[in-house]
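Researcher: Quick test of sequence recovery. Tokens follow.
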């Protein structure tokens, strides 16, 4: 299946100083602008990066942030290339943004992308049973909700790849700075189509924490301890609820980590997502290796 766990961690450490630069290591193959739902043009495309060779390889669906209203797939291009050089297929996706992509439309898009990657597994050398999901901020919410509530009827996509059926959740989830509970958070009203007092049932349904139950995929939550937008307590509450239900969940808190800007050990400021800091990258590779990187 490629590099051993220790070799991948060594690669992660070696590359960590230039985490947002092109990945070091072996070559990779790239498939640009792959449409996973042709009905919506460039709003539903993905760039797929994979190791050389026939696989099948474990895969990671990567979902960008941007308050559900901005951002694009290129935010995860360099991490996706690094994953490809570490033995994973990585698919960084676009999804419909607000106002067209209000909940649950974007959730349906993410599940459609997941279904597409599994349906075309042989073409992209993917093991369909070993597809994880990784996202940050709004993308962290989206990977959490497809991990916790893929079978919620309103989340079922109607795209050709899904065939009108519910899509199985990803095999593992990395959620960075993820809003896990919208209740009491009225700032999400544009995304959820109204204020909580007007649509309380939507605030409940869109919150991953309300879907916690036994049998969920493993989760790794990554948050900065100085994040004033999505405080780490939200990840801790989600983790505690999951563990209480018998699930595998852990939280990594990055010291000095904000939502978009962090302080490093020298006291300088870095513009860097908490899930792409060196500490987070090493933890993420270890988590992926443990959950989907090894053959059953």
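Model:
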């Amino acid at each position: 299946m490629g590099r051993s766990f220790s070799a991948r961690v060594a690669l992660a450490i070696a590359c960590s100083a230039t985490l947002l630069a092109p990945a070091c290591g072996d070559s990779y193959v790239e498939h640009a602008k792959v449409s996973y739902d042709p009905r919506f043009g460039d709003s539903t495309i993905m760039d797929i990066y994979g190791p050389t060779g026939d696989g099948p390889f474990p895969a990671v669906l990567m979902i960008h942030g941007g308050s559900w209203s901005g951002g694009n797939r290129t935010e995860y291009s360099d991490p996706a290339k690094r994953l490809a050089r570490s033995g994973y297929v990585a698919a960084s996706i676009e999804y419909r943004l607000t106002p067209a992509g209000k909940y649950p439309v974007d959730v349906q898009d993410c599940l459609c992308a997941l279904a597409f990657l599994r349906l075309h597994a042989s073409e992209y050398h993917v093991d369909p049973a070993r597809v994880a999901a990784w996202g940050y901020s709004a993308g962290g919410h989206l990977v959490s909700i497809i991990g916790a509530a893929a079978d919620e009827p309103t989340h079922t996509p109607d795209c050709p790849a899904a065939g009108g059926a519910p899509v199985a959740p990803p095999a593992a989830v990395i959620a960075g700075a993820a809003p896990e509970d919208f209740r009491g958070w009225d700032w999400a009203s544009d995304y959820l189509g109204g204020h909580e007092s007007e649509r309380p049932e939507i605030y409940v349904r869109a919150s991953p924490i309300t879907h916690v139950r036994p049998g969920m995929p493993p989760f790794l939550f990554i948050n900065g301890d100085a994040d004033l937008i999505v405080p780490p307590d939200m990840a801790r509450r989600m983790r505690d609820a999951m563990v209480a239900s018998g699930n595998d969940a852990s939280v990594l808190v990055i010291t000095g980590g904000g939502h978009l800007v962090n302080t490093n050990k020298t006291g300088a400021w870095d513009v860097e997502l908490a899930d792409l800091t060196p500490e987070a990258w090493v933890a993420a590779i270890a988590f992926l290796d443990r959950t989907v990187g090894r053959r059953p």
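Confidence is low (pLDDT under 50) at residues 1-23, 262-271.
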